[in-house]
């Protein structure tokens, strides 16, 4: 069986992570093409990864006869258009989150994806492929926690990146704190519970950089969510963790509870020195979820070869953005927001 030939669009920090994984760690896959508007990124692809075809436009790349599938890691606002074009060209598609920024646009894209079941589509909710989260999911599915009553999620970026985000926020649209960051936690809530979010209430505060108020962005946000079976979910999202990259999840049920990464440990090392006893922590998402990124791309290639769809779908991307949009509306209006059911379009 010949390798699946992939083209990637977007070679920023996350794009480089995917590109290096495809080139070095994914059996049955070859990184054939890369697209970026930045020549230095294309040079990186050619020199460091041995990519044979590089393009300044996405349209040229998806027209290449040497591309079987695409990996979309471009800015969020381009995702839906690029997904649709690739699907229409007969290509398999892996797209980073979010699926898009506008619900109507996402719904149109989901319809096109569902109309081509012979082509594999996978969205990049990599936490589902993390060993610890998969272990916890198995416990929940086996009933070891009983009926879930509360899910609590923390997702906080390191403060080392906050200043650069403030500059970015003044010139670009991230989609908002919840769409940009909590989308992973929203997906975890739906994944663990098997239920949809019915009602949300969100709050936010800008303390280190009050100027974020002027561009309608948040440094720190929190939300309370009620699921359709009245299970409670709590989200904390932020961009100012002094100790590093902090992702933590707690599940409470009628028979017990568990916590995933209560301390965001980098490894099993304890350092004993003048600072006391210190446990090193992960400093960024490529470090914390290194294996999860590899595992999700392996699943994408396996699905193509086995002619099946992955467990994480375009519908999951739609629902995640639907909830994130409701959370932003709650911030803007200072009101509780109800979310209409989308069961009619579940794939």
Automatic annotation (TrEMBL):
Which Pfam families does the record associate with it?
GFO_IDH_MocA, GFO_IDH_MocA_C3
Top EC class of this enzyme: oxidoreductase
Q: Name one GO biological process term.
A: NADPH regeneration
**EC id:** 1.1.1.18, 1.1.1.369
Molecular-function annotations in GO? inositol 2-dehydrogenase (NAD+) activity; nucleotide binding
What the entry lists under InterPro entries is as follows:
Gfo/Idh/MocA-like_OxRdtase_N (IPR000683), GFO_IDH_MocA-like_dom (IPR055170), Myo_inos_IolG (IPR030827), NAD(P)-bd_dom_sf (IPR036291)
> Where does the GFO/IDH/MocA-like oxidoreductase domain start and stop, copy by copy?
133-259
Q: Does the keyword Methyltransferase apply?
A: no
Per the record, its GO cellular-component terms are:
cytoplasm
Q: Which SUPFAM superfamilies match?
A: Glyceraldehyde-3-phosphate dehydrogenase-like, C-terminal domain, NAD(P)-binding Rossmann-fold domains
**UniProt keywords, alphabetically:** Oxidoreductase
Q: Which residues form the Gfo/Idh/MocA-like oxidoreductase N-terminal domain?
A: 4-120
Can you tell me which family this protein belongs to?
Belongs to the Gfo/Idh/MocA family.
**What is the protein name stated in its UniProt record?**
Myo-inositol 2-dehydrogenase/D-chiro-inositol 1-dehydrogenase
Organism this protein belongs to:
Oceanobacillus polygoni
Lineage of source species = Bacteria, Bacillati, Bacillota, Bacilli, Bacillales
